[in-house]
Amino acid sequence: xxxxxxxxxxxxxxxxxxxxxxxxxxxxxxxxxxxxxxxxxxxxxxxxxxxxxxxxxxxxxxxxxxxxxxxxxxxxxxxxxxxxxxxxxxxxxxxxxxxxxxxxxxxxxxxxxxxxxxxxxxxxxxxxxxxxxxxxxxxxxxxxxxxxxxxxxxxxxxxxxxxxxxxxxxxxxxxxxxxxxxxxxxxxxxxxxxxxxxxxxxxxxxxxxxxxxxxxx
Length: 217
Ligand code: MD3
Ligand code: FE
Prior knowledge:
- The protein is mainly beta.
- The chain has a single domain, classed as Alpha-ketoglutarate-dependent dioxygenase AlkB-like (Jelly Rolls), CATH 2.60.120.
- 13% of the residues lie in helices and 33% in strands.
- It has helices spanning 34-47, 98-111, and strands at residues 16-20, 23-26, 64-69, 72-76, 79-83, 85-86, 91-92, 120-126, 132-135, 147-153, 156-160, 170-174, 179-182, 191-193, 208-214.
- Bound molecules: N-(carboxycarbonyl)-S-(naphthalen-2-ylmethyl)-L-cysteine (MD3) and fe (iii) ion.
- Fe (iii) ion binds next to loops.
């Protein structure tokens, strides 16, 4: 006889979590692709190495960044923008690997956003202590497209706020393989990431990697 320990919905493992309407966490969705994503990332960062960008206000970001796809997110003393050229190399960003694109489209579809065609993937690398302060993603040409985020490696506490900076924030632990997709009425919600705690993950060792897929142009 097999006992179903998750028979009541109270203790049932939730695979799909709605943070609010149109902001969906797909727990473990990227798990099967973790090793392939990180192998492809290795090739990307040979062409476009991780770097600590400067904020327009003159601060060095604690998160190291790179990009792939037709456009990359860039920050410097002039502001934030999407640029087809990597300012560090003067060349275009590496193309988006097929495994990235397939996962992003698939996750968006599963979260309820049909026909997502990202042309930019921002790659964030967190080392212990690295954090992302509360912000909105609003540099994209149209805010009608969703954003898909993939967490790999060490876990991090994600802060999920409202449409105003001072709205109350929800704390959500994002672990290896978790995917978040948000759009529509949730597209301009404030969000951030608390300082990464040191740890060890077999695929990323001492880091957390986050991929965010956007339609920039
Ligand atoms: C926004 N990255 O690169 S994305 C960013 O984990 C960025 O590196 C974070 O914010 C990271 O701009 C977090 C995850 C996320 C999840 C749900 C959201 C952002 C969200 C819901 C609404 C708005
Ligand atoms: Fe963001």
